[in-house]
Amino acid sequence: MRLDKFLTETGVGTRSQVKGYIKKGQVTVNGNLAKDGSVHIDENKDTVCFQNKPLSYVKERYYMLHKPMGVVCATKDNINKTVLELFDKELQKGLIIVGRLDKDTEGLLFLTTDGEFSHKLMSPKKHVEKTYYFEADGVLMEDDIKKLENGVEIGDDEPITLPAKVSHVQLMDKKVSGRLTITEGRYHQVKRMLQAVGCKVTYLKRFSIGKILLDDSLLPGEYRELSHAELEALGYIKGKDE
Ligand code: URA
Fold first, then answer.
1. Does 181 lie in the same domain as 81?
2. Residue 61 contacts by C-beta under 8 Å, 6 or more apart in sequence?
3. What's this model's pTM, rounded to 2 decimal places?
4. pLDDT at 105 exceeding the cut of 80
């Protein structure tokens, strides 16, 4: 395959970034400086290094799943269906679940074979925004919204939550719906935040992670691969530390 294709597929960067890296002399093939991305290499035999580190050719896979309710985010479960079981048998091997949604929560979930992707997206340091639509029993007044936005206490031994965003709030008959955007991923976080201001969540759906929205053509239980553009929109380039 062409060297530039190999470099983009191993996640070194986009086509234009790869071109730049070759130009700057950051790529070698079998110890020799690569001069042009159009040269052909044998991905099973040649040793390609980027910034002196050898690259191995494993085609990673990245999926978005519309997680349905009633299915658990676990690789094995004796009672409940798992999110992995929603995938074709031949795709299940090596899949990692990126973060967790509760059994009764539906919506956007990523799964991947790439541990680095999972790690980076979940890192508390990254503050990736996750937006949820909620319905709850209770009312949300202006000061409750302020509390949620500034940070609330959700457990005795836990720090208060990081600043969040609340929008689209609608009240009707002691019921409330709205959107909550958080940058952490603590256990039952959305439910516990709303509980902290007197609201009991009755329905929860995650519809975005970073800039990626749940594809509305996916029915609950359906999945598709993430595109290269979507990975880029998530700020993810394999092998790149920020
Ligand atoms: N917060 C929750 O309470 N539950 C989820 O599934 C996700 C976020």
1. no
2. 91, 95, 112, 113, 114, 225
3. 0.81
4. yes
